[in-house]
Amino acid sequence: METSEAEHDDVIAWFEHVSEKACKVQSETLRRILELNSGVEYLKKWLGTIDVESIDDYTLESLYTSLVPIVSHADLDPYIQRIADGETSPLLTQEPITVLSLSSGTTEGRQKYVPFTRHSEQSTLQIFRLSAAYRSRFYPIREGGRILEFIYAGKGFKTQGGLTVGTATTHFYASKEFKTKQEKTKSFTCSPYEVISGGDFGQCTYCHLLLGLYFSTQVEFVASAFSFTIVQAFSIFEEIWREICGDIKEGNLSSRITLPNLRKAVLNLIRPNPSLASHIEEICLELESNLGWFGLIPKLWPNAKYISSIMTGSMLPYLKKVRHYAGGLPLVSADYGSTESWIGVNVDPQLPPEDVSFAVLPTCSYFEFIPIHRPQNQLDLCSDGEFVEDKPVPLSQVKIGQEYEVVLTTFTGLYRYRLGDIVEVTGFHKGTPKLSFIYRRKLILTINIDKNTEKDLQKVVDKASQLLSRTTRAEVVDFTSHADITAQPGHYIIYWEIRGEAEDKALEECCREMDADFVDYGYVVSRRMNSIGPLELRVVERGTFGKMAERCVGKCGGLNQFKTPRCTTNSVMLNILNDSTIKSFRSSAYD
Ligand code: AMP
């Protein structure tokens, strides 16, 4: 069998090659996408019946970008809905679509579906292998070792037309490519599939931790999709480590694990190991009493070489805590992608997450970039209404230092699709741009994988305030929100100023309603798994929003231009809001 080193070299050599001639590869990628999907209803609408094969690369690219419009999910949604309803004629792709993925965000208040094909799984496998290859250059690991991986597959469901729907990660963990990834990178997840797909965050995390410790000497690195999960898993561990030690000692499983499949799979793997249990106990006692859990990971997993996970973007606030648990172990920021397409790979795994950018994979999709200019003094990323956009440019024309919104044309039937992410070009890897993730456009509320925009929040609050007016003699005068991550699990706080009298029972119901009405799949899954806590409604004293406006106007000028931010992280505002809170409720929507 080939050594993993040789495999790593091969995959890196391939990537260096495609990066070198990224512009050409992009033209070829566009051609392949259009050839594969030639004649589908959507393309016919814009391109007519042009014969893609007879046109040269340059003309094809300019025809495509001049005839096919830039769209957002809402524009493609009618096609995707028809697919979901079971229509089998080629609408977006020639390959029949039998699976849909749930991407983050919403369209018109509904969960956002995107088509998923074999290509999606294959490109995930490709980027995981590539990423493993770059990591191994800086942090070589032992072949055949294990990964303590905090990964979770949600439950899928069927559409009316019988298509399977789930998150992209759910599809991937269930696919043969996930097995291939482990074999090719010669690193094996500690937990069996039953644990990954258990569906209950608390129970699955317990089992991940238990098995991670049971196999602790074999663990070569610790990973999760988003670093938030690592923080959460270890803060749970601080509370339950004694129970886990007890299970290792006796080869048993705590009664908190109630899912039969999970119990069976884990019990099959473990045998009583009293000496390991007392060794772990000794370390944990020291970590708890003397070290405030600093360096938990290297102390419990002495052979771990690094921690790998997405640590950029909305994960930056968790970095401090990850570093605390890592106690000096390198943090490797994982790659940049979306349900719609993979985008870039971290070719500098040795860099701290704050400095990481991602080299665009020119074979994954055809990329365009809309130059974005935002006012220098824009303080709060919560509002991005003031943007000026230029005409989109291809990959070959991006400039270092410029910010862009990413536009994708994918193998899975998305054509000139605005992803909503703002990135900055920080340099080039050979001929392919390196992107640093700046933020998700229009996003205001996010804790982990949830992504809610101002519009989503507005909808939820509108509905609940209608309920309030219907059931009481009160009305909502103004509102704002905050994603609170100071305590685990994080949760949304919505602040209301109300006029009139409302009984607690009615407000409690409004709180529950708002929690239940956020339909973004990331939010729903996180709430179900309790990796996001119950939404909180805080009612503030009359006049609080006026007070905030005055404070802000004092600082930033004209009252007539003041708009209540619908989400705030500003500590002055939060202090005013919290000091003025007279009542607070927690939702029971997911109890
Ligand atoms: P989803 O489609 O739900 O998987 O979410 C994809 C979104 O997550 C992207 O469009 C980004 O906004 C964000 N994201 C993914 N990877 C990264 C990364 N490495 N750094 C920062 N944000 C990321």
Automatic annotation (TrEMBL):
Any GO molecular function: ligase activity
Keyword Transmembrane applies: no
Residues of the GH3 C-terminal domain: 455-570
Record key words, sorted: Ligase
Domain GH3 middle: 359-440
Pfam hit, one: GH3_C
Keyword Ligase: yes
Family, as annotated: Belongs to the IAA-amido conjugating enzyme family.
PANTHER family registered for this protein in UniProt: GH3 DOMAIN-CONTAINING PROTEIN, INDOLE-3-ACETIC ACID-AMIDO SYNTHETASE GH3.10
Protein's recorded name: Indole-3-acetic acid-amido synthetase GH3.10
Originating species: Cardamine amara subsp. amara
Source taxonomy: Eukaryota, Viridiplantae, Streptophyta, Embryophyta, Tracheophyta
